[in-house]
TrEMBL record:
Belongs to the ABC transporter superfamily. GO terms for molecular function: ATP binding; ATP hydrolysis activity. Keywords: ATP-binding, Nucleotide-binding, Transport. Residues 2-226 form the ABC transporter domain. This is Export ABC transporter ATP-binding protein. Residues 303-338 are annotated as: Disordered. Residues 310-328 have a biased composition (Pro residues).
Length: 338
């Protein structure tokens, strides 16, 4: 269990982390989300005593600085390419193992585990970002720690690598470990994380389970398809708070919000309306993230750069419209947006 209390950090006049308190529980993956510059890396550095700031972090009740062999209890990767410049991957890990009373054989074990056995005698400076991430994870796992703190470990991994990482972290969590991981890959996070800590501009936005985050920051709706859709729509419109929209190009299909799925089914039954489909439509983690952090974005692209030689809009004029992606075969929405 990690207990972070009142973590804070200022850079001059700027508050990077503003009195954050949260817990990261064992046996599950806790995702750490926030827009660029939200303070995720700074928070992780504060947790590991790698930065000066305020607040306190306890790992199973103990401060990082009081743990005799931290590598054997807490594995961390905060920078993808933080390796010894001249040692081979294997010797880099052996050196760390020696410093923490870990047997040398463990270096080969973890290199094998992360898929780097073939390149273990190469220097990490020749590694791609994805390979460096794998070596970082090997380093974090070297001491077989109870706790893992990983800053964007999926960055640079190919799709197979991302899938592999998800399986690894989930299975390490199932073993009862405490996993705290930041990522900008929201679809990945929705598959991997059980709990979320979401911050914006150094402030806590949400701390709780993933479903709760999606529920809190989006509105779910009900999709209902019926050969008597008009009759059902009429009944639904009489329900207080319910909003009914006919789905374009899908005759007999209604999108309903402001009413539970079960209540739609019951209403259909009461009005002798036959249903062909009744489904709850839950918004994505990405939609929830956009809604929750929209006001906290610090670095926002304002306009599309005009190609050389084309006129730029006058200052104060309307911003350039974002380009509409071309439709793909099979797209059902204008512009091909999914
Ligand atoms: N060494 C530094 N000096 C001054 N400001 C800094 C320093 N490090 C971070 N900051 C600022 O603190 C804020 C938080 O930065 P941090 O790197 O923790 O954010 P982050 O959430 O990890 O961002 P990203 O997702 O882009 O990696 C940012 O506004 C950043 O500019």
């Amino acid at each position: 269990m990690i207990t972070a209390q009142q973590l804070h950090k200022r850079y001059g006049a700027k508050t990077a982390v503003d009195h954050l308190s949260f817990e990261v529980r064992p046996g599950m993956v806790t995702g750490f989300l926030g827009p660029n510059g939200a303070g995720k890396s700074t928070t992780m550095r504060l947790m590991l005593d790698l930065d000066n700031g305020g607040g306190e972090t306890l790992f199973d009740g103990r401060k990082f600085g009081t743990i005799k062999h931290p590598m054997r209890e807490i594995g961390a990767v905060l920078e993808a390419k933080a390796f010894h410049p001249t040692r081979t991957a294997r010797n880099h890990l052996r050196m760390l193992a020696a410093g923490s009373g870990i047997p040398f054989s463990r270096a080969d074990e973890v290199l094998d585990f992360v898929g780097l056995a073939e390149v273990k005698n190469k220097k990490p400076k020749s590694f791609s970002l994805g390979m460096a991430q794998r070596l970082g994870l090997a380093q974090a796992l070297l001491g077989n720690p109870q706790t893992l703190i990983l800053d964007e470990p999926a960055n640079g991994l190919d799709p197979h690598g991302i899938h592999w990482l998800r399986d690894v972290l989930k299975s390490l969590a199932r073993e009862g470990r405490t996993i705290f991981v930041s990522s900008h890959l929201l679809s990945e996070m929705s598959l991997m994380a059980d709990q979320l800590v979401v911050i914006g501009r150094g402030h806590m936005i949400y701390n709780g389970d993933v479903d709760g985050f999606v529920r809190q920051f989006t509105q779910s709706s009900v999709l209902v398809r019926s050969p008597q859709a008009a009759q059902l729509a009429e009944a639904l419109r009489r329900v207080d708070g319910a909003t009914v929209t006919e789905v374009a190009q899908q005759p007999g299909t209604l999108q309903v919000s402001g009413i539970e799925t079960a209540a739609v089914g019951e209403l259909a039954f009461q009005h002798n309306v036959m249903l062909h489909e009744l489904a709850t439509q839950t918004a994505s983690l990405e939609a929830a993230f956009m809604s929750a952090t929209g006001d906290s974005e610090e670095y926002v692209a304002r306009e599309i750069l005009a190609p050389p030689g084309t006129a730029t809009p006058p200052p104060g004029g309307p911003p350039a419209a974002p380009p509409v992606p071309p439709s793909q075969p099979g797209d059902t929405t204008p512009g091909g947006a999914a």
